[in-house]
Each structure stands twice: as C-alpha cells, then as structure tokens.
C-alpha cells in the first residue's frame, strides 16, 4: 500500500481554556486540536520530529535552527496506471503564436527573357550553353574568310 506523507509545524503556544490551568495542559490542548484537524482530513498521526534547518543571520552569517514537526500519512490515491492509460503529447517549450501562420506565397512566373542562362556542362570554361533564342541574334562582325584573296586565283 503506497502512502503519502505531510509535515506541519508543531504548535508553539498553548490554547487558553477554562479546563487547562497549567502551561502543559494548554499546550496539550493545542496539540490535540491540531491532531484532530488533520484526522478529519484523513491523515493519520505518525510521529513528531525535531529537524535542523540552516537559516541566514545578518548579511553573511548562518545559524542552525531546530524545528518541531508533526508527521502524518494517509493512503495514496489509486495510481492512474490502473485506469486507462492517458497519452500525453509533448508540449512546446514556448507558447504558440495567437495568429495562424500565413500560407506561403506562390512564386511568380519568370519569362524566358529574364531567366538566367543555364551553365555550360563543361565546368570551368566560363562559356554558357547556347539558348534557344541565340539563333535570332547576329554578330556585329562578319566571320573571317576561309581562304585568303591571293589563293582564289
């Protein structure tokens, strides 16, 4: 049987009552009231402990202080594993933006005249491959003759 535990500070002062005449009786009454309050919530008294705690004293000093604690236990709630297992999806580290993401804008059509020429398959030549529009272009200088004029005689 799994238990869960809790610790509360023990009362430091007694409760005044007509029946409680001595300080010990007053303290016992305060302690019984605390035990009954926890029992009403289903907690079972287990023990009282005196535990040390290091606390600051001034700017740089530290002192050890002892605290009186009351320890209680009760049966833990049934584990969730006995029920149908729940699947947890991982959550983003930062919250998602409130507005939805915009759809990507379509790429505009680039006409052939504005499109870059594809590179020559021969790497490093620096000459681009001829495009389909190259046959419409004319060179500024005519091609050199194959034979010299003296050879035509």
Automatic annotation (TrEMBL):
Q: Which domain of life is it from?
A: Bacteria
Q: Compositional bias (Low complexity) at which positions?
A: 111-123
Renumbered residue ranges of the record's region Disordered: 80-153
Kindly provide the name given to this protein in its UniProt entry: DUF4177 domain-containing protein
Organism of origin: Paracoccus spongiarum
The record lists the lineage as: Bacteria, Pseudomonadati, Pseudomonadota, Alphaproteobacteria, Rhodobacterales
């Amino acid at each position: 049987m799994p238990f869960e535990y809790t610790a509360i500070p023990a009362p430091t002062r007694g409760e005044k009552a007509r029946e409680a005449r001595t300080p010990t009786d007053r303290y016992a009454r305060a302690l019984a009231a605390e035990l009954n309050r926890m029992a009403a919530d289903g907690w079972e008294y287990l023990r009282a402990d005196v535990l040390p705690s290091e606390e600051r004293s001034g700017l740089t000093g530290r002192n050890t202080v002892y605290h009186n604690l009351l320890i209680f236990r009760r049966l833990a709630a049934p584990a969730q594993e006995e029920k149908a297992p729940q699947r947890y999806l991982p959550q983003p580290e930062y919250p998602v933006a409130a507005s939805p993401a915009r759809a990507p804008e379509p790429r505009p059509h680039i006409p052939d005249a504005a499109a870059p020429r594809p590179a020559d398959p021969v790497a490093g030549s620096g000459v681009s491959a001829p495009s389909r529009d190259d046959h419409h272009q004319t060179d500024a200088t005519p091609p050199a003759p194959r034979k010299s004029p003296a050879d035509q005689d």
